[in-house]
Every structure is written in structure tokens, then in C-alpha cells.
Amino acid sequence: MPGSFHVMAKPIGPLCNLDCRYCFYLEKEELFPAGENFRMPDEVLESYIQKYIQSQHTPEIQFAWQGGEPTLLGLDFFRKVVALQRRHAGGRPVHNAFQTNGTRLDDEWCEFFARENFLVGLSLDGSEHIHNRYRVDKAGAGSFARVFQALETLKKWRVEFNTLTCVTRQSPGEAAEIYDFLKAQGVQFMQFIPIVERTDGLGGTAVAPWSVSSEGFGDFLSAIFDEWIKADVGRVFVNFFDVMLSAWCGMEPGLCTHARECGQAVALEHDGGLYSCDHYVYPSHYLGNIMEKSLEEMVFSPAQVKFGRNKHETLPAYCRACDFLFACNGECPKHRFVQTPDGEAGLNYLCAGYKKFFRHIDPAMRQMAALIQAGRPAAEIMEAGRTQVAGRNDPCPCGSGKKFKKCCGK
Fold first, then answer.
1. Model's pTM, two decimal places?
2. Nearest Cα to Cα of residue 215 among 405, 353, 28
């Protein structure tokens, strides 16, 4: 039986009502003919839903909808989505994740999300002056007021949601402000995404001025972690921290960017075209069309399998010798465009920042892993200032009676 995989569906393609200055997807319009309406046809939609359900050998089925801005399709489109899922699911539970900029959400949308149990990802970069720096509409006006209203409406209807925050050049100095703002709004589930965009194509190394610096990203993550570890473990869930804790517990990171191999998180465009990854929607990474091939045929094709294995097989020797390879695995291939200290190509642009962050969190992560391995909640790390007092020569948090360095700190 083939392995599992995930599809990010873009039923409106790259079309969006905003013009975020750091967006990498708006340029995808150039892949399609002039005059393209970028709306997934009904026959493509049903073919995708039917084939995706058939391809998922799991008790429950997870769909993901993104753009562009998917609300541009209108609510009736997603009513149709739910009806088709019920028709083809064979009684299996179906769940939907929906990523949006929030500017078009109202009571009608949120009532639908609540009734149909959609998980909504809301793009929110922080307080007003931070959010409006890059997240602007076609007229150049900030979008914060509309997004904030969407946040309130989601909460009003008790829609399950998380926030997606882009980390830019200025973010390291604003980390605590961003985290405190999100917490103050009742956000319990947070994602932080580094903005790294090249200005000279896939073959270059120059980055756009809004891109976060490598060390800056490490500083940003460390500042957020320091706020979180003091009082919010088990109360606020930062996606990346959860992924890292699983790595420190000896499991492979569940996030594709930090997994040993990738290739099983593909992107479906509005016309049914399937691509290797959301960040590789280029003709060279086109796998085929849903109207002509099965998803399994494309996802497990030799070309896509090679794409996924290359993530590990092309790692520089510098990465293979790194103490934090278990947590990083070279991160996303799209960021591997700088040289190692000894001149080998293929080092991740964010390497220095990740190393800085991993060193910073290592003592606390080891202690939380020890607690979990002892059958105790990781949140106990917050008790009695344990993050500060449990050094290598202190008693191990697992309760073994041994020194930390002789037990779980090995």
C-alpha cells in the first residue's frame, strides 16, 4: 500500500485581493494563459475530491484549501465542496483546513466554518503597525482592521483557528510584541514562517530586502521561546516548538521542512495541475493533471520520489556532521542556496539562525523530553524555575535519582 501524502489545493490559483509585498505566489499568474479566470471548474473539483478520498488509506480524511485567497470563490463553492466530500467519503469523517487573509470573512462565512468544523488559518503578522508594513491591498492600504474584525468574528462563532505570522527583516526586534499581541487576542495556536525570497531567481543568492536574516530568525525564535517557556507550555501551542520537542524525544520531525525527506506534500492548481511542492510550482516540477492521472501515480512517480529523496541525499558534509541534524535535516531545499564554511554548495540560508536557536533551547528541550519519557507533562518545566536550575549536574527531571548528564541529558 502506498504511503500517505498531503495535497494543498489552490482552487483560485494565485489570485488574491491583497498585494502583500513579500508574497511569492502572485507571480504564478504568469504560468497560465492570458485571460485565465483562475476558478477551479466543477469537473476538476469533483475529480480531485473523489480521487483524493480514494488515495487516503486512513480512518479520517484531511483536505487543505489555500490560494491566493480562497474566499474569492464565494461561499457557495465551499458548500459544494462539503456536499461532494459527503458524496464520496463513504462514511469516513472529512476535515477541512482553510487558509485565508481574513479580509472577506463575515458572519455567514464563520457560521459555515463553525457548522462544518473547518479549521481556519488566519494570516496575521502582529499588531497594526507590524501587520500593515507588508500586508496591504491593491491600493496600498493596510489590511489590519479587516483582519482584526475577522479574528473577532471567528471567536464569536467559536471557529477553531490558528494564526500564521510571517517573520521578516524587522521581526527579530518585535518578537515579544508579536507574541504578546497574539496571546492578548486569545490565540492559542501559532505558526511563524520565515520570509526568505530571492531577487535573482532560483540560481541566485541575493535576497529581497524584507527577507529575515539568518541570525535574525534565530533571535526571533529564541525570543518567542523565552516568553513561551516561562508560562505558556501546554497553554499556547507554537507549531515549530511542538515539532522540535518531538525531535528531542527521538522522533522524526513531522513538519515537511524538517523531515529527513520530503515530496509527499504536493500542490494542486485550479486547473488540476499537480506540482512537487507549494514552493516548486514551476514547469520543471509539474507532475501531471488530476483529470488524466491518479494522485498516487503522480505523487509516487520516479521524478517525485527523487525530488523527496534529494532533500537528504544532497546535504553538504557540513550538515551531515552537525549535532542538530536530527532536528533540522537541512530544512527546506528552497532555502539551500549559500555555501558552507569550506565552500561546498547547498547550505541552508537559515543555518546560522537555526543553530543559534537549537543551542538556546537545548537545555529546556532535554528537560521536557525527560519529563515526557517519565510519563509526566512537559508543562512541569515551568514549575519552580526548573528551566534555570536544572543544569547538567542537577537531578534529572525524569525522577531517576541520577544526575541529568548521566541520565536523559546524555
1. 0.92
2. 353
